[in-house]
């Protein structure tokens, strides 16, 4: 247990067999009600850990809000489990809707993998960690509305839009104390995964950039992010993240010069990846779709900038440079 600010505690919740290692769970204590932010994968061993956190901090199920920053299973897995115990759960409607329509969501994930060219990799949804450790059943939630305030103890949090990493990610900003709980928007050492969610969700990398710029301009003394150590200087880290993606966009442009028409899988193979496999063909199954999803988000961003376009042949997309 670590008090990181007055009445704000951080607990590291184990994410078994996952490269992210831990989820930073934040507990904000108030007199009449308290709040816990995010809750980890849906696994027996993590259920026990989360119940211990409630006990250790003297949290009452009936007087505690669970605030979910976004729909990823490492953040929401135990939400229905806690809801059944009486905890009120908040999440944005955009992410809540995706979460409560798992069949449509996983169908779309499969279709996107096919658009990206993963038919030749024997792509299976069942091996996706987000699928394996998702919530049980449907989540009965209260909508977290952008601009609304949530008062806990001495704090008055404003719900802010941090979409990009997921279509409906939100954060909590406390203006007076200059605190921001940012979910996976800005992480130290790790580059948050930006993926293609489907054409109806638009340019996710562009949305992410817009929300990085927004946070850049905010006054923040403590940035509470969901994984690894806390970010000390948000502006310095945002500059690094933007530079990373600009380099990535250059890699994508270069990859597209190799062929007249490239599948997303072709482009992905040309990019540099921090993973202990010699080449794309040896990537673990789930990493392949993370990788092609990321490449696809960068290709779509270039399309929004007017630099590339695509054609579709059967179930696969092929991108090409227009300039
Ligand atoms: Zn996430």
Structural category: alpha/beta
Architecture in CATH? Answer: 4-Layer Sandwich
Unreliable stretches, pLDDT < 50, 5 or more residues?
none
Strand content: 15-25%
Total helical elements: 10
Give the spatial strand order of the biggest sheet. 1-2-3-4-5-6-7
Distance between the termini: 55 Å
- Give the helices and strands as they follow along the chain: EEEEHEHHEHHHEEEEEHEHEHHEE
User: What spatial form do the alpha-carbon principal axes imply?
Assistant: globular
CATH fold-level label: Metallo-beta-lactamase, Chain A
| CATH homology group | Ribonuclease Z/Hydroxyacylglutathione hydrolase-like
Based on CA atoms alone, the radius of gyration comes out at 20 Å
Ligand inventory reads:
zinc ion
Number of strands: 15
Tell me about the largest β-sheet: 7 strands, mixed
